[in-house]
Amino acid sequence: MNRDMAWRALEIMYRIRLFEEKGKAHYQQNRLAGNFLGAFHSYIGQEAVATGVSLALRNDDYVFSTHRGHGHALARGIAVKKVMAELRGKVDGCSRGRGGSMHLFDPALGFLGGNGIVGGGLPLALGTAYAAYYRGTDQITVCFFGDGAASQGTFHESLNMAVLWKLPVVFVCENNGYAVMTPVRETICIPHIADRAAAYGMQGYAVDGNDVGAVYQQAEEAVSRARQGAGPTLLECKTYRIDSHCMMLPEIRAEKELAEWKAQDPIARWEKYLADNRIADGDAREELRARVAAEIEDADRLADESQYPDAAEFLEEIKCAN
Asked: What is the per-residue pLDDT across 177-216, written as a single tens digit (0 to 9) for each?
């Protein structure tokens, strides 16, 4: 990763972190008033995964997200104001207020949505990957999913088909240690989910998901292989979500475990890397963080000013769908 990209990585991670903190604060204050649609799945602690993978992509590639998708959307380049408005159910949101937190969508950026179904994006990713193969382009598809989805039937079916057809897709497992409240160690009997790739003749790699440089390097290699027609890759990024699953369920993880992972904060680690390699000093980082914070505040103000969708439009859309 060159110096410019290293700086860009920090900017993206700041944007995700500050966005999530603002969104979480609003959710905690206003969820009973109906200002948010559904649950709020915080991405705090996992910023290095979305950032490292997205930096390896081109603008014409495709991305499938998850229910925990704010970080994916922001790293892909969806405007902060559009994501913030969507969380608030407003018409200026990226899904026009129809999708809310779990259904962010922007086809112009190849961002083909989050999914409330665990593992729901896995088979969908085969569609765009096959389309690129059929057209003869070198576009690739990235599909994010969690450790819980790695035990869904769609996971195995999708990996098998991707290898059979040698599709240009990178499956990115964000292993944050828990499927809602169930530890991964209680559901998967091998040390690395990436090891499952071998059963399908696929390349599989496990990487430190809190090291954005390591994520980028491994993602770039997988993307390059797919572009060259060498087929799919399973990339497991071992990370940790700092907040509870969806802000509504109680915290069940041990304080010691939480403290150990907080000490591995991906942003703090990258700040140290930038300082140690004389890429950005403390003043430069503070200036960047302040600029991103102002961007978040502006997006929040615009979301406040935006209107809720007209109920009559929903009725017309339902009629058209039928």
From this structure: 999 889 999 999 999 999 999 999 999 999 999 999 999 9
Residue from 315, 122, 152, 138 nearest 230 by CA: 138
**Hey, how many other C-beta atoms are within 10 angstroms of the C-beta on 321?**
6
Tell me if residue 234 falls in helix, strand or coil.
strand
CA distances to 24, 29, 219, 319 from 16, in Å = 12, 20, 19, 37
pLDDT in tens, 252-300: 899 999 999 999 999 999 999 999 999 999 999 999 999 999 999 999 9
Among 318, 298, 259, CA closest to 19: 298
Assigned token pair, 121: 């994006």
| Homologous superfamily of domain range 3-321 | Thiamin diphosphate (ThDP)-binding fold, Pyr/PP domains (3.40.50.970)
Domain map of the chain by residue range? 3-321
Cα distances (Å, whole numbers) of residue 33 to 3, 103, 213: 45, 21, 41
